[in-house]
Amino acid sequence: MEVSEWKARLEREREEKDRFLAAHWQSPIPPQERTRFKGLAYYPADPAYRFELEMHEHEEKNIVRMAYTKGNEQEFLRWGEFWFTISGQKQVLQAYKSDLEEKRLFILFRDSTSGRETYGAGRYLDLEPERDLTPDGKWILDFSKAYNPWCIYSKDYTCPLVPQENWLEVAMPAGEKDYHLKKE
To answer: Where are the domains of the chain?
Structure first.
């Protein structure tokens, strides 16, 4: 896919998400705040934060107990890991699944923008095989699609906290920025 096509698709996805958050009955933004919602803040689309990577699947799928923002915990399977280099530093991110039948990979991460420019608890990526798996078996990790968990919008939600093994040592200035209801 060409960079211009990728950017145009990303812009459409961002506009669709803003429309959903502003008006859909399932939006996590409380109804009384939706009229003031003017859209999310994003980093500019940058192909330097889009990777096509081999996933190194773990032989043993160890269970990871993730803490949630409201104190509960849930078990996930540590499925595999991705290795990549950014800003001259090698990084490793673990990918998780909720169970053995799950097709989607769930990646949570924090980076040096967390708590400054992005949500302090971290951001997420969802990888769907039919969308994010290339014909040669590599996964597309596009940090421009990094999103905030729903608990950033409302205290009615609880979200998994990023395990320390997925705290990146670099800045990942891509995807959604911290959410602050924009004033009119």
So the answer is: 43-166
